[in-house]
Prior knowledge:
alpha/beta, Rossmann fold
Amino acid sequence: METHRIRNDKIGMLKRSEPKKKEFPKLILDSNALFVPLQFKLDIFEELNTLMNANYEPILLSPNRQEIERLAREGSLKTRKEAAYALKLAEKCRLVELEIIGASADDVIVEVASKWKCPVFTNDRLLRKRLRDINVPVIYVRQKSRLEIDGGLKPCLNL
């Protein structure tokens, strides 16, 4: 009887493994991207879904988060309020901790984006130029009303 139960236990015979987490393409956000909703009244996450035609994983690098936290502490009253809102938006992003000493947040973005070949969302003109020079796709606000991508969009799944 016991042998019959064990042999016919279809649930026990199924291979039990951890559910596989689905990988989404990565998208690195610059700190100024998190200020876009307040400046231009755009829902950046919805606009990014539309632009990329797929789900994606927003990535915020630790130097960028530190930059926003510094603005929330030391900026003017208006800047502190905007930075506090940006920090709330940052909670929707995956935080990638990096230990890079002496480099600016833009330098870190350029370095990481060049390794991963992931698109970057920024409105910083100089950073956009640096990224396009190394063939990294850049997403930015166009005409204060929509997002646009400069460069081909290739999926980036590695991290």
